[in-house]
Amino acid sequence: MAKCHRKDVGSLVLGHRDPTRNATVGGHFRLWNTFSASSFRRIIFDAVSCGGSSRYHHRNRDDFSCSFSTTRSDSGNLKEKQRQGDSKSRTKPNARSEKLSDLLNIAESETDAETKKKEDELEELKRIVKELQGEDLMKQQMAASNVRLLAKEDLKIRGTLAMLGAIPPLVGMLDLEDVQSQIASLYALLNLGIGNDANKAAIVKVGAVHKMLKLIDSPVAPDSSVSDAIVANFLCLSALDSNKPVIGSSGAVPFLVKTLENLENKTSPQAKQDSLRALYNLSIFPNNISFILETDLVPFLINTLGDMEVSERILSILSNLVYTPQGRKAISAVTDAIPIVVDVLNWTDSPGCQEKASYILMIMAHKAYGDRQAMIEAGIVSSLLELTLLGTTLTQKRASRLLECLRVDKGKQVSGSYGRNLGATVSAPICGSSSSSCPEPNGGGKECLELEEDMMSEEKKAVKQLVQQSLQNNMRKIVKRAHLPQDFVPSEHFKSFTSSSTSKSLPF
Predict the structure, then answer these.
(1) Does the N-terminal or the C-terminal CB of the chain have fewer CB atoms within 10 Å?
(2) pLDDT above 70: percentage of residues in the chain
(3) DSSP type of residue 85
(4) Helix, strand, or coil here: 119?
């Protein structure tokens, strides 16, 4: 490696002729004669080697100093790397820009295609609505069928069709005498209203409910398909709270009850289910209960309890009716209504049925003494005891409140009868008192119980025995429904409880 230093290069001092000193001929530069020939050659070689390196640059043109060391091979490699770096820096921005341009072009093409598709769909919807508003019957039917299909598939299309004005002409088609046009318009309105509250309100607002009832009340009996479509529309429209009072006061309730009862066997099972659900929606609004009670719906519902497919829905309607005094009165007026509802707690394992039945009985027990007596006579206590152990959290809570209500009522009944008996037999000895006719407590407790047993009539003994058997049977039933082992042995506390309980000491 060739090395050069500022001191070595500085020794090549080139000076101009000074008139006051030794001068050279012709005023040329001269070299100091302090170097030998070999030293001079070495200095020149070092200077040329340093000057050929491109690693450092001269600070100014007159500076001949070199302050670094390098090799020619290193210099060549460095230049090659610089050229590669420059080429990469030139190619990368171009590649990135090309990729970004491709992505933008793809996104733009997709956006254009999607926009064109939406524009075509909008034009198609406009054409359908225009045909609905026309006077050509065939085109109206076809347009209504298209609305039915399009609204069934896409929720957004329902709103778009409504904004384009599809609802008024569809409702107007209900005035036509053609059955196919009526069916097409009814199902188109049904699909427009599903999942869209604004459309539900708009359908009712333009008078669809009254036009539907007009079809039902026409002298010529409507086709069964038309009736089924009207029931489905009432179900859809009654789901909106603002529509409930309009539909309830319009006269739709008797039609729905008639459809539910299916006296003429012309109603499809689906229409029967839809009618029951629509009546439930209407019963949520308190002012509609009076319209429901004007029909014979309550007796029909109570007598239909036991059908597993509809029992929970029936109990839901009764739960809404029992909330009002008129509803409770109507339920109590039905023959064997309380035993039928109590029996639901015995035969059903559905949590929903148990919760709703216990709610109905709890409300009625809190409001009417006669209903509490009917519940006790129907054997509700054993069912409630079972529910407090095996029911859902809500059922357990309601069963406990119902038991407390019955216990308080039973306690009042027992205390009243005890007071009357005490007044009638005031001179009779009372067991456990300080009377001399009763033995001392230190050894006469057993004798007192024996005396009470002797005084008990044969009828009371039979009742006591029946109560013990009933409690044991109830325990077996609870064990069976709780899926406990068949050889489950009751605790000693329960045995003593069943052996000492009477009909007046049951834990109501």
Answers:
(1) N
(2) 60
(3) H
(4) helix
Comparing C-alpha atoms, which of 3, 170, 166 is closest to residue 70?
3
Q: Which two tokens stand for residue 363?
A: 């409300």
DSSP-based three-state secondary structure for 290: helix
Cα–Cα distance, 158 to 196 (Å, whole number): 8
Please state, in angstroms and rounded to a whole number, the distance separating the CA atoms of residues 116 and 94: 33
Cα separation, 375 vs 407, whole angstroms: 12
User: pTM of the full predicted structure?
Assistant: 0.63
**Alpha helices of 59-178 — where are they, by DSSP H?**
72-132, 137-153, 155-164, 167-172
Contact 132, 147 (CB under 8 A): yes
Looking at residue 112, its pLDDT comes to 74
Contact predicate 326/293, CB 8 Å = yes
137: its two tokens: 């019957």
Nearest CA to 399 out of 382, 412, 413 is that of 382
pLDDT in tens, 414-444: 444 434 443 433 333 333 333 333 434 444 4
- List Cβ<8 Å contacts ≥24 apart for 366-375: 366/405, 367/325, 367/328, 368/328, 368/332, 369/409, 370/332, 371/332, 371/338, 372/405, 372/406, 372/409, 374/338, 374/339, 375/338, 375/342, 375/406
Closest CA to 359 of 398, 392, 393: 398
Contact present, 451 and 431 (Cβ < 8 Å): yes
Token pair, residue 346, equals: 């015995």
Six-digit token string for 105: 């072009």
- pLDDT tens-digit readout, 320-365: 999 899 999 999 999 999 999 999 998 888 999 999 999 999 999 9
How far from the centroid of its chain's Cα atoms is residue 288's Cα? Answer: 27
Is residue 387 within 8 Å of 396, Cβ to Cβ?
Answer: yes
